Amino acid sequence: MSKKYKKIFGRVIYMLYNMNIKSKLRGGEMAEIKYDIIEKLGVIGEGSKGWKKEVNIISWNGRKAKLDIRDWDENNEKMGKGITLSKDELKALKSLLNSFEVEDLDI
């Protein structure tokens, strides 16, 4: 490798280091997500692999608890994508759901 390319390569590595990508270059993992299931409200579905769509009250990363709907494995250790709702968002959703008949929906 020529001196010119070594210098360019060195600058790129330095930039990546400063952008905090060092851990990804070394095969680092994502930051840990902390959660505390305050209350399990119920299960609204189950997938073919045993994961359950649960409705829970959860505190994420020590923040104020919210209503949470997402898929969980049987031990609540692994999770799928989900949705969290604040109390105001939950009130708005409840009002919206009460404004129509589920049987009238073409779903």
Q: What is the rounded Rg?
A: 23 Å
The strand line-up of the biggest sheet is 1-2-3-4
Distance between the termini: 62 Å
What's the multimeric state? single chain
How would you spell out the order of helices and strands?
Answer: HHEEEEH
Indicate the proportion of strand residues.
25-35%
Q: Helical region count? A: 3
Count of DSSP strands: 4
Spans with pLDDT under 50 lasting ≥5 residues? none
- How helical, in percent, are the residues? 25-40%
Helices and strands: which structural class?
alpha+beta
Question: What's the average pLDDT?
Answer: 87
Largest sheet composition: 4 strands, antiparallel
Shape annotation: elongated
Quick rundown:
The protein has helices at about 5-20, 20-25, 85-100; strands at about 35-45, 50-60, 65-70, 80-85. By secondary structure, the chain is an alpha+beta fold.
